[in-house]
Specification:
The protein is mostly helical and 467 residues long. Helix content is 73%, strand content 0%.
């Protein structure tokens, strides 16, 4: 595996060198070739991470290369001043507080102990847990750090074999309910801040909390229901679960009495969610509301001085800021303008039939994900200028277009294309599922997305966001 990572990175570096030296694309300026080469080097480091280098390594390579080849600093680092970054940073602290206080684990065990254990009730429990945790923190990594250990404890308590059908069912459903439903509102996953950062400046005011929920909630609720339902049908073992409700009650009581910090954290997170949901009335931006919640956590000493530095993953924050800067980088280096005549006619011709457009773009981004592995961010940045004509000429709201982009970002056809699968596999020490189960889950997810888009199109037409 170590040699594979090095070899993969080397291939990207060699391709970058080829691009920079030969400059093969007619009409693309020299600076555009050099910047494309720099992006290839960064992608190689982000995808393969040789020697487990942090994402910061690819970010540093991109910043250094872009500056070296003449791009202004304010363009190269423009992502760090976007509103998306200032939603992301407090969001990560909110998630840290949820994990640190144990409130997330308490919520999970409270729900699990409320049902008589069967495979079906476990699925229902995971769904409820996923919704609640998504409401309290947009950090999917935090949610996975809460639910995946509990899922493996459940597998062990039921005496299920590692990577068996029953183990895969429990773990894949826990994964799906932690990752998918929160996409339905702006602060329910990091996709909200990411897409807000990628949108052209004139499009950003359209992506409010209300509009995001209005467009996204129905399709992602349907996707989640269909995904867990298909996993249940495909993987449910014949033998019943060998565990009693009393087991969960004991595990819940083992957590002890709820602490003052848990209560304070719960109140602050619930208050933040209320502020996010009522932005249309108080007109305080999502970023300001999120930072207010972090301030409250600091004042109540849920987050301490030393945890300001250690409480969140700054590697991810730097990665976020750099990839959001890609839109400005591609525009300044004239890469977006060069590729636009090749891409725009095909995309805009599809937009004349909006439902077909959404499905084709979703499938197209699925294919791109096998190459543009870090959630497809570079492709999103490259095509982000198209959000404007799609809205102005065809009435396709940027949040509606984002459905197709995010559907690809959450896909899990192979483990290497889905970072959250890899994170969960690390948490469970590769005991939860096999590669075949992941591929099966990827197929179930793809079917769920297509069906959801078809069903949601009726709803979107009813609320007048789908022409």
């Amino acid at each position: 595996m170590r040699h594979t990572k090095v070899l993969g990175t080397l291939i990207f570096v060699l391709c970058a060198g080829f691009l920079a030296v030969l400059r093969p694309f007619s009409g693309l300026p020299d600076q555009g070739h050099y910047v494309c080469a720099t992006v290839l080097v960064a992608l190689g480091l982000w995808i393969f991470r040789p020697g487990n280098v942090p994402y910061f390594a690819g970010a540093a390579a991109l910043i250094c290369g872009a500056l070296f080849f003449g791009l202004p600093l304010q363009v190269v680092t423009s992502g760090f001043t976007s509103s998306g970054v200032w939603v992301l940073i407090p969001a990560l602290y909110l998630g840290y507080a949820l994990a640190k206080t144990g409130l997330g684990k308490r919520i999970a065990y409270f729900v699990l102990k409320s049902f008589r254990p069967t495979y079906f009730t476990i699925i229902v429990s995971w769904f409820i847990i996923g919704l609640v945790l998504s409401a309290l923190t947009p950090s999917i990594t935090v949610r996975l750090s809460v639910v995946m250990p509990i899922a493996m404890n459940l597998v062990e308590a039921c005496r299920l074999e590692d990577r068996s059908r029953g183990s895969a069912l429990i773990c894949l459903v826990a994964w799906g309910t932690a990752v998918l439903p929160g996409t339905g509102w702006l602060t329910g996953s990091l996709w909200g801040p990411f897409m807000l950062g990628f949108l052209p400046p004139e499009m950003k005011p359209l992506a409010t909390f209300d509009m995001w929920f209005k467009i996204m909630a129905v399709p992602w609720f349907i996707i989640t229901i269909l995904f867990v339902g298909l996993i249940y049908i495909l993987l449910k073992p014949k033998a019943p679960l060998a565990i009693t409700q009393e087991t969960f009650r004991k595990q819940y009581h083992a957590l002890g009495k709820i602490s003052v910090q848990e209560i304070v954290t719960g109140i602050i997170l619930a208050g933040a969610l209320a502020l996010f949901a009522t932005e249309r009335y108080h007109h305080i931006s999502t970023a300001a509301c999120a930072m207010t919640a972090v301030l409250a956590l600091i004042l109540f000493q849920v987050i301490t001085f030393t945890e300001i530095r250690t409480g969140v993953n700054w590697d991810i924050i730097v990665f976020f800021g750099v990839v959001v800067s890609l839109s400005g980088i591609f525009a300044k280096a004239e890469i977006s303008g060069w590729i636009q005549p090749f891409v725009e006619p095909a995309v805009l011709s599809l937009a004349q039939t909006p439902l077909t457009f959404l499905i084709v773009v979703t499938v197209g981004f699925w294919l791109i994900r096998f190459i543009d592995v870090p959630w497809g961010f570079s492709t999103i940045a490259l095509t982000s200028p198209l959000f404007i004509p799609l809205f102005v000429n065809f009435g396709l709201h940027p949040v509606l277009v984002s459905v197709a982009v995010i559907a690809a970002g959450n896909s899990l056809f192979l483990a290497y294309t889905q970072p959250f699968i890899m994170i969960s596999d690390t948490i469970t020490q590769s005991r939860g599922w096999s590669a075949r189960h992941v591929a099966l889950g990827g197929g179930a997810y793809a079917v769920s997305v297509v069906i959801s888009i078809l069903i949601s199109s009726i709803y979107w037409k009813a609320i007048h966001v789908l022409p």
